[in-house]
Amino acid sequence: MRIGLGYDVHRLVENRKLILGGVTIPYEKGLLGHSDADVLLHAVKDALLGAAGLGDIGKHFPDTDERYKGADSLRLLGEVGKMLLLKGYVVNNIDATIIAERPKMAHYIETMKENIATALDISVHQVNIKATTTEGLGFEGRGEGIAAQAIASIVIK
Ligand SMILES: Nc1ccn([C@@H]2O[C@H](COP(=O)(O)O)[C@@H](O)[C@H]2O)c(=O)n1
Ligand SMILES: C[C@@]1(CO)OP(=O)(O)OP(=O)(O)OC[C@H]1O
């Protein structure tokens, strides 16, 4: 079994959609990025790429490449899943944490899990997503941005 870690942060700004785990969440601000800025999926992809020894998302989907402007992070997650399969790996499990003061994520967690499982062609039982605040502390606590952490384990097919 191999294990990988992922971590990402995006800034919250006005006039952007808030997309997390492929779910568009009603909120007064959204995350800024070259892609759709889905910070949760970025952390998940980095965890998977890390576990497989395949580098990180910036290596495979550079933010200088126009092809990834506004890119759908769920589609890119599917591509990462295919990269792992090509190397002979299958996903064992994924666990992730969204770090955000607001909005409340609880209502959207199940759909996020389903989206990730579908993109990777795995069972929803292999995916766990959590959310936490930082009790008002730091950039997440001030609502300046959202962070996500992920860990993934993979096994040889
Ligand atoms: N953006 C968030 C943050 C937290 N939750 C849920 O609330 C629980 C308590 O959060 P604390 O930071 O006070 O520990 C947490 O376990 C989550 O279930 C949430 O839905 N959205
Ligand atoms: C997937 C990419 C593609 O531009 O998304 P960004 O929105 O630029 O997000 P970031 O986490 O800064 O870097 C990863 C990029 O490769």
TrEMBL record:
Its EC number is 4.6.1.12. PROSITE patterns: ISPF (PS01350). Keywords: Isoprene biosynthesis, Lyase, Metal-binding. Its cofactor is a divalent metal cation. One of its GO terms (molecular function) is metal ion binding. It catalyses: 4-CDP-2-C-methyl-D-erythritol 2-phosphate = 2-C-methyl-D-erythritol 2,4-cyclic diphosphate + CMP. Signal peptide: none annotated. It holds the Pfam family YgbB. It is an enzyme of class 4 (lyase). A divalent metal cation binds at residues 8, 10, 42. The keyword Lyase applies. The keyword Lyase applies. Residues 1-154 form the 2-C-methyl-D-erythritol 2,4-cyclodiphosphate synthase domain. 4-CDP-2-C-methyl-D-erythritol 2-phosphate binds at residues 8-10, 34-35, 56-58, 61-65, 100-106, 132-135, 139, 142. GO terms for biological process: isopentenyl diphosphate biosynthetic process, methylerythritol 4-phosphate pathway; terpenoid biosynthetic process. Pathway: Isoprenoid biosynthesis; isopentenyl diphosphate biosynthesis via DXP pathway; isopentenyl diphosphate from 1-deoxy-D-xylulose 5-phosphate: step 4/6. The record marks 34, 133 as: Transition state stabilizer. Binds 1 divalent metal cation per subunit. HAMAP family: IspF. Homotrimer. Involved in the biosynthesis of isopentenyl diphosphate (IPP) and dimethylallyl diphosphate (DMAPP), two major building blocks of isoprenoid compounds. Catalyzes the conversion of 4-diphosphocytidyl-2-C-methyl-D-erythritol 2-phosphate (CDP-ME2P) to 2-C-methyl-D-erythritol 2,4-cyclodiphosphate (ME-CPP) with a corresponding release of cytidine 5-monophosphate (CMP). Belongs to the IspF family. This is 2-C-methyl-D-erythritol 2,4-cyclodiphosphate synthase.
